[in-house]
Backbone:
């Protein structure tokens, strides 16, 4: 059985993150709307820390990603964790990897004392 791990994306993987973003855009028939570049992804994720990305890896090979950031609820009075994108390559769907990414983020939200996860 393959080993599935989730880990934060590394600085040298901005191009990989962009590739997953483009694959998601193709899936959603929105590739013409992608303006991101490897440089803007690098700056946003690893310099400005505007968002975070985790990679789902099967036997060490990235097969999916989740990109998320914190927002804030005035009603709850705490930050929340907002999932922007989640994608698993088509040939690896149906194996529970998407669910595993969601559960990972739910646990992360709890660890970070977020008031909600959406």
Residues:
């Amino acid at each position: 059985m393959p080993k599935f791990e989730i880990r934060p994306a590394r600085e040298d993987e901005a191009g990989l993150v962009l590739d997953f973003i483009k694959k998601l855009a193709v899936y959603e028939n929105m590739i013409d709307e992608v303006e991101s570049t490897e440089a803007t992804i690098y700056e946003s994720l690893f310099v400005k820390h505007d968002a975070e990305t985790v990679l789902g890896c099967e036997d060490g090979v990235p097969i999916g990603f989740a990109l998320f950031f914190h927002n804030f609820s005035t009603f709850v009075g705490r930050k929340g964790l907002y999932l922007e994108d989640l994608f698993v390559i088509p040939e690896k769907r149906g194996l529970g990897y998407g669910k595993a990414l969601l559960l990972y983020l739910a646990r992360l939200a709890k660890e970070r004392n977020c008031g909600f996860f959406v």
About this structure: The helical segments are 14-27, 38-47, 97-111.
